[in-house]
Amino acid sequence: MAFSLMAASSLSMHFGRKTPIRCSSSSSSAVSSQAKSIQFDLKTYWKQLIIEINQKLDEAVPIRYPDQIYEAMRYSVLAQGAKRAPPVMCVAACELFGVDRLAAFPTACALEMVHEASLIHDDLPCMDDDPSRRGQPSNHAVYGVDMAILAGDALFPLGFQHIVSHTPFDLVPESRLLRVVAEIARAVGSRGMAAGQFLDLEGGPNSVEFVQEKKFGELAQCSAVCGGLLAGAEDHEIQRLRRYGRSVGVLYQVVDDILEEQSKKLEETNESKRKKGKSYVGVYGIEKAKEVAEELRTKAKQELEGFEKYGDKVMPLYSFVDYAADRSFSFETSS
Prior knowledge:
Blueprint: E1 2-3, H1 5-10, H2 29-35, E2 40-41, H3 42-60, H4 67-77, H5 85-96, H6 105-122, E3 132-133, E4 136-137, H7 139-166, H8 174-188, H9 193-202, H10 208-231, H11 235-263, H12 270-276, H13 280-284, H14 286-304, H15 315-326
Antiparallel strand pairs: 1-2, 3-4
Helix pairs in contact: 3-6, 4-7, 5-6, 5-10, 6-7, 6-10, 8-10, 9-10, 10-11, 11-14, 11-15, 14-15
């Protein structure tokens, strides 16, 4: 599946239809004219990175004592069907500035560990009470609630340790690593993802924007920002990546809610209705959710306009926006 910037700016928010519409492009002429001739295959780029990331995650989380905790950790971290969106976005943001992806892999793996830890805890009976994840039993359904909690607790610090112990210092100065560690800690902490989970449990329908931004936007913006930090991006570029990542993260979830509603996958149970009320679709209706998604798509692309000097290196980040909106391909792979 090849993407071009021209095609990316004209694809519609079809949600199940393949009918493109013409949109007025706010992209700078420098980006548009340069990118018209550039074809970028996001599917191949993403799948190749998944293979590399899976291998490095396998090495990063070996079986050690106590075996049962490590087995529970590996069950989620190495689960089949994982899209690896946080690590892929981190690598893409790092490569945007011309830095070798080897500089980003330890942080990319740490982001996936943090992501999986959050999913393990999110699925717990005391949280969202989900019995399955990616078509397989949730971690707590296999290993028990106690082991699932410990697995999540162990993955968070292991991620930080992996960054510090495996990042090549000839590519990334220690000062940049400190900023990366601080960024991840902020994103998952009491003012980040944890705050989103709190309001998901306790808040009413008027908290949906905050919940979506914190539960889903935080990790995406953290992933993009960490890639930039590793590469030594300027502060104004980091802020662009922050706004870009936040928009893409929330966009992905809003589209998920729309697709779920349209495909009628939700069973009409009290539990499914409770979750539905925490989505844009559940609160505002499907048409308003589509408008929100299109606004987020536009915002994300606008933030990338400041990176025209990096040429085709920005194409993965552009293509992520349209993938988040359109889900143009699947990740069925044996890797």
